[in-house]
């Protein structure tokens, strides 16, 4: 697995950057924020960090990324943020993801309000992220880092690069729930079992279910410099003609 970057953003209402640094030092249980570095000496993990001033569009982006799950009260708190801490992780194995989850929890303990995965476009409440932090198994991480999107011509997943794997795509020839079940089952099997797929291989959800033919593709959805771009590509799940 080659390195790829996963970015999470955490807004908070710190009075100034000095208060942010002090809050991390006193409340994060072992992390220190210095310049563009977030470091835990005890856990021997380090992340690159960017701290941005107030962003007027943050409430709207968190509302969209939460898929309507955030209360208006939480969205108003986010709207009143002063800074957003962006943690940038170079991910090369599953342990790096659990480290990133830990670092996100540390900033939440220091006054962060919620988490948005910038490389997937999913937002989570503080409580939801803390629960993930307590049980970071593959299924929980998958549910938090991967989403299924329906486009005009196809359904696809976003976020599998967190596992160092291609996303999955299938043509818009079935109902949304069926497509989501197919892609989620394929992705979870891929992340959990790590099979070596090849072009032309077949996949089915269960023995009596339709069979899909796998074709590897480059990620055509975004340019390479876009946060959603998956450098590992896509597996297209196609049907027999």
Low-confidence stretches: none
Shape: elongated
Helix content: 25-40%
Number of helices: 7
Structural class: alpha+beta
H/E series: EHEEEHHEHEEHHEEEHEEE
% residues in beta strands: 25-35%
Number of strands: 13
Task: Quote the average pLDDT.
Answer: 94
- The CA-CA distance between the termini, in Å, is 34 Å
Strand order within the widest beta sheet? 2-3-4-5-1-6-7
What about the largest sheet?
Answer: 7 strands, antiparallel
Radius of gyration computed on alpha carbons: 19 Å
Structural description of this entry:
The structure is a single chain. Helices cover 32% and strands 29% of the residues. The chain has helices at residues 17-27, 58-65, 72-79, 94-109, 126-134, 138-145, 176-193; strands at residues 4-12, 31-34, 37-40, 45-53, 83-91, 114-117, 122-125, 147-150, 154-158, 167-171, 202-203, 212-217, 234-238. The strands form two sheets. Strands 2-3-4-5-1-6-7 form a seven-stranded antiparallel β-sheet, sandwiched between helices. Helix 2 (58-65) packs antiparallel against helix 3 (72-79). The longest helix has 18 residues, at 176-193. The protein is elongated and about 60 Å long. The mean pLDDT is 94.
């Amino acid at each position: 697995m080659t390195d790829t970057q996963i970015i999470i953003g955490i807004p908070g209402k710190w009075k100034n950057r000095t208060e942010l640094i002090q809050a991390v030092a006193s409340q994060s249980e072992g992390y220190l924020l210095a310049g563009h570095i977030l470091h835990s000496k005890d856990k021997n993990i380090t992340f690159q960090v960017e701290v941005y001033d107030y962003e007027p569009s943050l409430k709207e982006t968190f509302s969209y990324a939460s898929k309507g799950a955030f209360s208006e009260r939480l969205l108003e708190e986010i709207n009143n943020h002063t800074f957003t801490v962006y943690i940038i992780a170079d991910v090369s194995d599953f342990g790096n993801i659990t480290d990133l989850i830990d670092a996100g929890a540390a900033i939440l303990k220091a006054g962060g309000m919620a988490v948005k995965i910038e490389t997937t476009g999913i937002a989570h409440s503080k409580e939801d992220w803390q629960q993930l932090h307590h049980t970071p198994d593959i299924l929980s991480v998958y549910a938090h880092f991967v989403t299924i999107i329906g486009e005009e011509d196809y359904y696809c997943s976003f976020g599998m690069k967190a596992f160092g794997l291609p996303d999955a795509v299938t043509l818009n020839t079935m109902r949304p729930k069926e497509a989501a079940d197919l892609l989620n089952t394929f992705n979870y099997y891929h992340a959990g079992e790590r099979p070596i797929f090849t072009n032309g291989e077949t996949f089915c959800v269960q023995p009596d279910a339709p069979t899909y033919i796998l074709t590897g593709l480059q990620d055509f959805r975004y340019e390479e410099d876009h946060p959603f771009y998956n450098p590992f590509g896509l597996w297209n799940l196609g049907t027999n003609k």
